[in-house]
Amino acid sequence: MQRDAVVVGGGVVGAACALALADAGLQVALVEAGQPARWSREQPDLRVFAFAPDNAALLDSLGVWRDILATRAQPYREMRVWDAAGGGELHFDADTLARRELGWIIEHGLLAERLWAAASRAGVGHFQPASVNGLEQRDDGVRLTLEIGEAIDARIAVAADGANSTLRSLAGIGAPTHDYGQRGVVAYVDTELPHRLTAWQRFLPSGPLAFLPVDDVRRSSIVWSLPEDEAARILALDDEDFGIELTNAFGARLGKVRPASRRVAFPLRRQLAKTQVEGRVLVLGDAAHVVHPLAGQGVNLGLRDVAALRDSVREAKRLGRDFDAPHRLQRWARARRSDNVASTFAFETINRVYSNDALMPTMLRGHALGIANALVPLRNALWRHAAGS
Length: 389
Ligand SMILES: Cc1cc2nc3c(=O)[nH]c(=O)nc-3n(C[C@H](O)[C@H](O)[C@H](O)COP(=O)(O)OP(=O)(O)OC[C@H]3O[C@@H](n4cnc5c(N)ncnc54)[C@H](O)[C@@H]3O)c2cc1C
What we know:
Helix content: 25-40%
CATH class of the domain at 2-48 and 63-72 and 113-177 and 270-352: Alpha Beta
CATH topology of the domain at 2-48 and 63-72 and 113-177 and 270-352: FAD/NAD(P)-binding domain
Bound molecules: flavin-adenine dinucleotide
Number of helices: 11
Number of strands: 20
Structural class: alpha+beta
Radius of gyration: 21 Å
CATH architecture of the domain at 2-48 and 63-72 and 113-177 and 270-352: 3-Layer(bba) Sandwich
Largest sheet: 9 strands, mixed
């Protein structure tokens, strides 16, 4: 049987893609190498996302957002960004932007689990655990072979299998990588002072340190970007010393910080696939772009790939045209790559300028934040870009 689409990789982006394509009327299969995502209220996932409003709208249109909101999604109403070296502060506030909230902090595991369940309900066929190990491209479709010995025929294949994507490699798409030589340390912490539903980001010479609120009062999730050796040292500290170092690194902005979970670290790199389409293979999510976590945009960019693909399929159906016409796939890929490249280098430039203790950048950057904050149209434009509106 030939399906319309086969999605490889059932992380948040792949599961959302399978669901979105089924929602657009396609017959879809989803292939995932690991076990089904499981989320538990008692054991929070250390990987959390700052979820943007446009992606909340995407999940709402797919029928999963209300469930996620009702289960555990922490709204944040303000964002404050400042430089350890001094100067001004960039401040976004839901009230002045006429919003109820700026976004939500949500656990990766919760999103993945609910998207998987919705994809099953929408009739997406699952192959799991199963890894792809072969690709044949034809004029009218693709054949994927799985390590478990099965083959799947489809009109298009979607690579959503993460940064080390097998399907991207099988399609012959290069993805040059730049290692930042840094790791992101993540953990939950409690702070002496309430976080006031604010996402905080302090730039230090070693890299940005973010506190993201995950309850109504004092608990936050941190993402601390550090050089490799520093990250290893921080991971090895006992809880008391970790709390002291974190309090200092954050300039005690929320008083004393106390660890509330174990810590893990993930490598930080920039990776951009040279193209997001090759023949009938489309590439999205981390398989197409890995970005610095400083703006919390990794998963948001991936879900924007998904939303644009669904729009393209819907438009083709409305016009009675083939959803998989090469020019249509190319158009989607060009538009998404241009947005992803611009975002990737914007985050990298911010990180370079702010994670730097040379004299000129230090003198300029704090003022730049203050100026950006004072220029209301510029501040609002920055926010609209981050929110995907
Ligand atoms: C600890 C941590 C913290 C992070 N924090 C943030 C943050 O604060 N904000 C943010 O925006 N981003 C963050 N990120 C990045 C974010 O996790 C990614 O951008 C996002 O998860 C990408 O989703 P994805 O679905 O594209 O890829 P992934 O989540 O990598 O999912 C890929 C899926 O493909 C499967 N797979 C792999 N190979 C195969 C194969 N051959 N066949 C079949 N299946 C396969 C994998 O099992 C996996 O389920 C963080 C990452 C980590 C590791």
